[in-house]
Amino acid sequence: MEQVVDEYKPGMARHSSGGDEAILQVASLTKRFSGVVANDGVTMSVMKGTIHSLIGPNGSGKTTCLHSISGLYTFDEGDVLFEGKSIASLKLYEKVRIGIARTFQHAQIFKELTVIENVMIGEHNLRKTGFVGGSLLLPRVLKEEKESQREALRILDWFGMRHLAFAKSGDLPYGYQKILEIARAMAARPKLLILDEPAAGLTNTEIEQLEQILVKLCEAGVTILLVEHDMRLIMKVSDSITVLDSGRVIAQGKPEEIQNNPQVIKAYLGDRRAG
Ligand SMILES: Nc1ncnc2c1ncn2[C@@H]1O[C@H](COP(=O)(O)OP(=O)(O)O)[C@@H](O)[C@H]1O
Ligand SMILES: [Mg+2]
């Protein structure tokens, strides 16, 4: 991660190309579990080239919303549009192919595999041959495999983790495991990157590195939808924020608008984890 730190210059102009066009629109999204309305008519627009955060107390429906967007859950009502088209009926892998990638609340890397293998899995989602074809030693497959390796190394370099390429992923410190998950998601070359609590379990130094990575990804043209509990991080990196409480949107706006919103403060008072 050191390399990212070296390249990063505070105050660098950012988001110059983003802001006026929605890449993702969530429209009146409702998701029920027996008895619980986890998302109740959630509407929000994520603008292209920005970092948009979805926050709210524990159990307010953030993860459910991300699952509905990424295709892990089918929702009950409403719609999700990506680049203006409904993606409600697309499968998880189809969403990866059109440019949506995500990480999970609890790091889900393959701990027995090496770092580079984990990144290559993210890239395989885009390739014709995939894993089954990949086991046949056809020249085309071998060529793709080489390309895939090169690409994975390039991504690891970008994340300042190239020196760890052949380490066993499970042996990495937790902070690196979480960054590796983002690197793997980026291997699918997404336009929209969805992150569920990337700072959870990280040290303060690791959170600062994460912050730099998020800003750098955004500068590289990736739109980020971020669910996070670390308010310092949220307030520093977000262009706009949507606040959920009991499955409903209670506020939307820029960080400074959200910070002083009485309804938001009230919603958070009962939540110990928010700083
Ligand atoms: N798979 C599930 N089955 C039943 N209830 C669920 C499930 N997932 C989430 N819920 C409920 O939906 C609500 C929202 O949960 P979640 O989206 O995980 O919130 P958050 O990510 O904001 O903490 C909670 O009341 C939770 O208990
Ligand atoms: Mg959650």
Give a structural overview.
With 275 residues, the protein is an alpha/beta fold. It has a domain at 22-111 and 189-269: P-loop containing nucleotide triphosphate hydrolases (Rossmann fold, 3-Layer(aba) Sandwich), CATH 3.40.50.300. The protein has helices at 2-7, 62-70, 92-98, 115-124, 130-134, 139-158, 174-186, 204-219, 231-237, 255-259, 262-269; strands at residues 22-33, 36-47, 51-55, 77-82, 85-86, 100-102, 192-196, 223-227, 240-245, 248-253. The strands form two sheets. It has a six-stranded mixed sheet with strand order 6-7-8-3-9-10, sandwiched between helices. Strand 4 and strand 5 form a beta hairpin. Helix 4 packs across helix 6 (139-158) and helix 4 (115-124) runs parallel beside helix 7. The two termini are 26 Å apart. The model is unreliable at 1-16 (pLDDT under 50). The chain binds adenosine-5'-diphosphate and magnesium ion.
Helical proportion, percent range: 25-40%
CATH topology description of one domain: Rossmann fold
Are there runs of 5+ residues with pLDDT below 50, and where?
A: 1-16
Bound molecules: adenosine-5'-diphosphate, magnesium ion
Largest sheet report: 6 strands, mixed
Strand content: 15-25%
Span between termini: 26 Å
Order of strands, main sheet, comes to 6-7-8-3-9-10
**Whole-number mean pLDDT:** 88
Number of helices: 11
Radius of gyration: 19 Å
Order of helices and strands: HEEEHEEHEHHHHEHEHEEHH
What is the annotated CATH architecture of one domain?
A: 3-Layer(aba) Sandwich
CATH homologous superfamily of one domain, by name?
A: P-loop containing nucleotide triphosphate hydrolases
Shape: globular
Count of individual beta strands: 10
Structural class comes to alpha/beta
Broad CATH class of one domain: Alpha Beta
